[in-house]
């Protein structure tokens, strides 16, 4: 049951991801990307991470994609009129194919033994996923969490400097 | 996973009942709005179909269904079909996390009166409400008309701006109930609804959700004076109806949320919980209609100014104050 | 409801970062109240702040303090690199004011952004957690994107900012992907835990997750330090960005990239040394060769130095491929020397250039040796050092890098490196030929050496010469610094 569900979601995710890059109309691409994000959120739910799922939808599908759609609409980009560059496409295909074969070869011949972290599914269910994330964020990852605020400040300064009419 | 057939049957019954209730309520809200507006403006309003015009919603639906379903020649057909559904479905989904009554016990089976008791219910609501924007935006885009496009862009900008202050206004609620679960939030208000502790957050939330419903004084995406009808200018028949119903479902859902977050949910003296919840929700719906009958529309820059420069800083300030008070009292 | 106990935090290791961040924020506020004609004061304040921080960082030499439950560390390695960053920032601040005044873009936000860049770089060098390193890199990169596009009226600067941003964001994706895979393979983002896990479970190139993680992380860093074939952004960004910022970003961020890459490769991925060592061998050869050969064909002096900067990344990669103490100490030494000589060269370019980024071709240096002999001498020293001639810092740096490779047994790598150095002499010498052997076509009346630039030039010349003549005083610090790794 769960495997079947996973298979369906994966199929949708892959198809919508392909649509993102093949759609001629930018809005369709953006909508396909939103669909992909939904599929990712579904994965998080299946992995007992409801908080991540909610944040995935809220931040990516909700906030970031809204901005992208906003810009597309504001510039009123209908169908993009770029030239076809067949030789570059061919080169990309060759590199992609080579990487694919290489990766497949490595995956089949290697093993991936992984250590288990301190939190498994039952502990997450018992304490609560959101609580665990909050606790980790303010204990183990306190410094990275604080650096993020500097990063956002820098981004805001940058946006003001580069975009404001008169500074 | 093995489930008791009785449980499944109860769940299905609950689902059906909620679905029916919300849709009917939405239809009658349209009627109520027209009657109340008429009353405020000293008119009569629709009173011909059935006693007091009570069958008017039915007549409206028949009219919408039998009308010609026009698609503009230059429109993006698929998106044009998709947009009304995208506007209505997130609103309906949000209702699944709202607890509308105390858990019932029927024949030894406990039946929680909400569809899905998610432990991230509040985030689920925020996530879906940020998705609800796309209906407006895509509708405006797909019509391929300048009024629709302008309406769609306005809708996007407005919803992003107010999404922020709405989310921030809910942070104190989470801080006080210490949970994202709607059930926990309601339980935490057993003795005292949060509106008593958080009047500021409630006001910010109220203004923000009014903007989320795109109701006067925030109805710029459809401002009929300048944009004909904004994002749904080109829609006709039941597709237009779907946008319309979506808006009223939204009012009910957001009313239910306001009740859950700030007004104590289904808690209340004497009357049964479901009745209390309905009273609070309908009071919010009445407030929306009242506002529409009373207030003029904001100008666009005023709208942005209010959202970014007043509500958001206030909400942040409120979070700080709440944090300090909780820290000092703990 | 149990309360979270926040672990005891020792702020000493990130005190420099805190000071610089606070100073940057204060400058942002001060900037509002300063008239646009008096922004020079902001440069003085930030320069003093940088010097003060350098004193503080220097006083931490020889200590080893971990903090934030292992997310950041204060050790000699971090201290050495932090000094390089502060030096780059200090010199860049000295040359920024006059240039920005001339180009009419002397906005006060420049200095806070430089300081934030330094904060990001410091976190990269001091971070012992993948998260810290990544966020440090992002703080650095985002500030640099803005600095590259800082001259808003100039389309080339806009192009530089946009290009840098797009390719930088793209490369960040690689880095993050690699970190995620590494985390998946080892179950931790702490470098030390990754190392122990990899050691215990015997993870080497047979473990696809671990290997792919390392490769993608390396790719991400290769973008940042402009290694061929990830160098495409470099010439355009270096040419378009305001010249002081080009100077800064060719020295500081490159060193930061090397700092983080060294720490990761040597501590977290020693079990994969056979793999990354060979990979770096190839990358080093490619980088040196492509950088030098392309530089031969350039006329614009900023583009020449951009390609030369690619080539120098290649030289430093030689030391990284070697991965032994001589090679890695060589990188530390080389990054310091490169900071002196490259920023010095850019200072001269600023003085020779005219408003609107014009007068920046090699031909425009014609006769500089007759009109401004001191400037020409300084430029000659920098160019000699860049081409690696004794008795300058560049020579000693290359000497250690290549001898590290020879110790490791990479004789051919060293040979290719030396050949490349020889080839590079051509385009450095070309500038000197124009300075001394062509008649002046212009009077260079606009070239006025202001006090801050003079200070920068003096410091750079002194640094280049002292490191070249008595390298041991710094080299012993460099060797001390890499002992922990």
Automatic annotation (TrEMBL), chain A:
It is found in: Cell membrane. The chain crosses the membrane at residues 6-23, 30-47, 53-77, 89-108, 141-163. It is a multi-pass membrane protein. Its EC number is 7.1.1.-. It catalyses: a quinone + NADH + 5 H(+)(in) = a quinol + NAD(+) + 4 H(+)(out). The keyword Transmembrane helix applies. InterPro entries: NADH_UbQ/plastoQ_OxRdtase_su6 (IPR001457), Nuo/plastoQ_OxRdtase_6_NuoJ (IPR042106). Belongs to the complex I subunit 6 family. PANTHER family: NADH-UBIQUINONE OXIDOREDUCTASE CHAIN 6. NDH-1 shuttles electrons from NADH, via FMN and iron-sulfur (Fe-S) centers, to quinones in the respiratory chain. Couples the redox reaction to proton translocation (for every two electrons transferred, four hydrogen ions are translocated across the cytoplasmic membrane), and thus conserves the redox energy in a proton gradient. This is NADH-quinone oxidoreductase subunit J. It comes from Pelotalea chapellei.
Automatic annotation (TrEMBL), chain B:
It comes from the Bacteria. It catalyses: a quinone + NADH + 5 H(+)(in) = a quinol + NAD(+) + 4 H(+)(out). The chain crosses the membrane at residues 12-31, 78-102, 122-143, 155-174, 194-211, 248-268, 274-294, 306-327. NCBIfam families: PRK06076.1-2. This is NADH-quinone oxidoreductase subunit H. One of its GO terms (molecular function) is oxidoreductase activity. NDH-1 shuttles electrons from NADH, via FMN and iron-sulfur (Fe-S) centers, to quinones in the respiratory chain. The immediate electron acceptor for the enzyme in this species is believed to be ubiquinone. Couples the redox reaction to proton translocation (for every two electrons transferred, four hydrogen ions are translocated across the cytoplasmic membrane), and thus conserves the redox energy in a proton gradient. This subunit may bind ubiquinone. Keywords: Cell membrane, Membrane, NAD, Oxidoreductase, Quinone, Translocase, Transmembrane, Transmembrane helix, Ubiquinone. PROSITE patterns: COMPLEX1_ND1_2. PANTHER family: NADH DEHYDROGENASE SUBUNIT 1, NADH-UBIQUINONE OXIDOREDUCTASE CHAIN 1. NDH-1 is composed of 14 different subunits. Subunits NuoA, H, J, K, L, M, N constitute the membrane sector of the complex. It is found in: Cell membrane; Membrane. Belongs to the complex I subunit 1 family. Its EC number is 7.1.1.-. It is an enzyme of class 7 (translocase). It is a multi-pass membrane protein.
Automatic annotation (TrEMBL), chain C:
Keywords: Cell membrane, Membrane, NAD, Quinone, Translocase, Transmembrane, Transmembrane helix, Transport, Ubiquinone. Its EC number is 7.1.1.-. The chain crosses the membrane at residues 14-34, 41-65, 77-96, 108-126, 162-183, 208-234, 255-272, 278-297, 331-353, 374-397, 409-429, 449-474. Residues 128-421 form the NADH:quinone oxidoreductase/Mrp antiporter transmembrane domain. It comes from the Bacteria. The keyword NAD applies. It is a multi-pass membrane protein. Belongs to the complex I subunit 2 family. NDH-1 shuttles electrons from NADH, via FMN and iron-sulfur (Fe-S) centers, to quinones in the respiratory chain. The immediate electron acceptor for the enzyme in this species is believed to be ubiquinone. Couples the redox reaction to proton translocation (for every two electrons transferred, four hydrogen ions are translocated across the cytoplasmic membrane), and thus conserves the redox energy in a proton gradient. This is NADH-quinone oxidoreductase subunit N.
């Amino acid at each position: 049951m769960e495997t079947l569900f996973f298979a369906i979601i994966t199929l949708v995710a892959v198809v919508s991801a392909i649509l993102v890059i093949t759609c001629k109309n930018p809005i369709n691409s953006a909508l396909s990307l939103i669909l992909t994000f939904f599929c990712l959120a579904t994965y998080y739910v299946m992995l007992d991470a409801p908080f991540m799922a909610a944040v995935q939808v809220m931040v990516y599908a909700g906030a970031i994609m809204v901005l992208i759609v906003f810009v597309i609409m504001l510039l009123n980009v209908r169908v993009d009129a770029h030239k076809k560059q067949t030789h570059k496409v061919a080169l990309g295909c060759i590199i992609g194919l080579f990487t694919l074969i290489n990766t497949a070869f490595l995956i089949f011949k290697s093993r991936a033994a992984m250590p288990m972290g301190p939190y498994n599914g039952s502990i997450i269910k018992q304490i609560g996923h959101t609580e665990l994330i909050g606790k980790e964020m303010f204990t183990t990852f306190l410094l990275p969490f604080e650096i993020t605020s500097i990063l956002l400040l820098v981004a805001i300064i940058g946006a003001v400097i580069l975009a404001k009419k008169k500074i | 996973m093995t489930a008791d057939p009785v449980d499944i049957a109860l769940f299905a019954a609950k689902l059906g009942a909620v679905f029916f209730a919300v849709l009917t309520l939405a239809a009658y809200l349209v009627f109520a709005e027209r009657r109340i507006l008429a009353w405020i403006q000293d008119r009569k309003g629709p009173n011909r179909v059935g006693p007091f015009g009570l069958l008017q919603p039915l007549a409206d639906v028949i009219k919408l269904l039998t009308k010609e379903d026009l698609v503009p020649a230059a429109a993006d057909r698929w998106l044009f079909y998709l947009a009304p559904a995208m506007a209505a479905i997130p609103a309906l989904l949000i209702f699944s996390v709202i607890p509308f009554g105390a858990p019932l016990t029927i024949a030894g089976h406990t039946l929680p009166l909400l569809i899905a008791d998610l432990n991230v219910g509040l985030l689920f609501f925020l996530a879906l409400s940020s998705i609800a924007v796309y209906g407006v935006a895509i509708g405006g885009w797909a019509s391929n008309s300048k009024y629709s496009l302008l309406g769609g862009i306005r809708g996007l900008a407005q919803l992003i701006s107010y999404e922020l202050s709405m989310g921030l206004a809910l942070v104190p609620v989470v801080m006080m109930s210490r949970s994202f679960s709607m059930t926990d939030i309601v339980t935490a208000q057993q003795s005292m609804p949060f509106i008593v502790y958080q009047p500021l957050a409630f006001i910010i939330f109220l203004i923000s959700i009014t903007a989320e419903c795109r109701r006067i004084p925030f109805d710029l995406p459809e401002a009929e004076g300048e944009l004909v009808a904004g994002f749904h200018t080109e829609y006709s028949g039941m597709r237009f109806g779907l946008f319309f119903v979506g808006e009223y479902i939204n009012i009910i859902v957001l009313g239910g949320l306001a009740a859950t977050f700030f007004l104590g949910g289904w808690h209340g003296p004497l009357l049964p919980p479901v009745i209390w919840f309905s009273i609070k929700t309908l009071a919010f719906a009445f407030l929306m209609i009242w506002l529409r009958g009373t207030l003029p529309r904001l100008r666009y820059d005023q709208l942005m100014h209010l959202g970014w420069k007043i509500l958001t800083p206030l909400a942040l300030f409120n979070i700080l104050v709440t944090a300090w008070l909780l820290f000092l009292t703990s | 409801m149990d309360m979270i106990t926040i672990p005891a935090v020792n702020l000493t290791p990130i005190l420099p970062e805190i000071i610089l961040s606070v100073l940057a924020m204060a400058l942002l506020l001060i900037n509002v109240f300063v008239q646009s004609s008096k922004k020079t004061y902001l440069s003085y304040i930030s320069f003093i702040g940088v010097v003060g921080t350098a004193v503080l960082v220097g006083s931490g030499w020889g200590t080893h303090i971990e903090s934030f439950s292992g997310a950041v560390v204060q050790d000699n390695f971090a201290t050495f690199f932090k000094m390089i960053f502060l030096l780059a920032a200090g010199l860049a601040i000295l040359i920024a004011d006059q240039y920005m005044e001339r180009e009419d873009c002397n906005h006060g936000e420049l200095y806070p952004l430089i300081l934030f860049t330094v904060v990001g770089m410091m976190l990269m060098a001091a971070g012992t957690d993948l998260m810290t390193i990544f966020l440090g890199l992002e703080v650095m990169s985002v500030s640099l994107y803005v600095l590259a596009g800082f001259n808003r009226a100039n389309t080339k600067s806009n192009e530089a900012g946009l290009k840098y941003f797009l390719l930088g964001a793209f490369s960040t994706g690689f880095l993050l992907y690699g970190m995620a895979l590494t985390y998946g393979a080892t179950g931790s983002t702490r470098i030390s835990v990754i190392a122990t896990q990899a050691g215990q479970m015997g993870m080497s190139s047979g473990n696809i997750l671990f290997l792919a993680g390392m490769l993608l992380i390396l790719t991400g860093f290769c973008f940042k330090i402009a290694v061929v074939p990830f160098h495409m952004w470099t010439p355009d960004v270096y040419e378009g960005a305001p010249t002081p910022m080009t100077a800064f970003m060719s020295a500081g961020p490159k060193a930061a990239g090397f700092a983080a890459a060294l720490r990761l490769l040597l501590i977290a991925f020693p079990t994969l040394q056979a793999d990354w060592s060979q990979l770096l061998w190839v990358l080093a050869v490619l980088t040196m060769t492509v950088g030098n050969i392309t530089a031969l064909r350039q006329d614009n002096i900023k583009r020449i130095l951009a390609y030369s900067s690619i080539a120098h990344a290649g030289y430093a990669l030689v030391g990284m491929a070697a991965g032994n103490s001589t090679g890695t100490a060589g990188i530390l030494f080389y990054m310091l020397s490169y900071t002196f000589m490259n920023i010095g060269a850019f200072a001269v370019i600023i003085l020779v250039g005219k408003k609107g980024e014009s007068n920046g071709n090699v031909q425009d240096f014609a006769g500089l040796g007759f009109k401004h002999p001191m400037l020409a001498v300084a430029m000659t020293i920098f160019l000699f050092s860049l081409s690696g001639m004794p008795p300058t810092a560049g020579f000693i740096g290359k000497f250690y890098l290549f001898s590290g490779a020879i110790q490791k047994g990479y004789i051919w790598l060293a040979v290719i490196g030396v050949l490349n150095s020889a080839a590079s002499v051509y385009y450095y010498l070309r500038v000197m030929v124009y300075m001394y052997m062509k008649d002046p076509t212009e009077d260079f009346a606009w070239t006025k050496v202001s006090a801050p630039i003079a200070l920068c030039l003096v410091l750079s010349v002194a640094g280049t010469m002292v490191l070249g003549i008595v390298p041991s005083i710094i080299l012993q610090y460099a060797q001390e610094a890499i002992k922990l790794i």
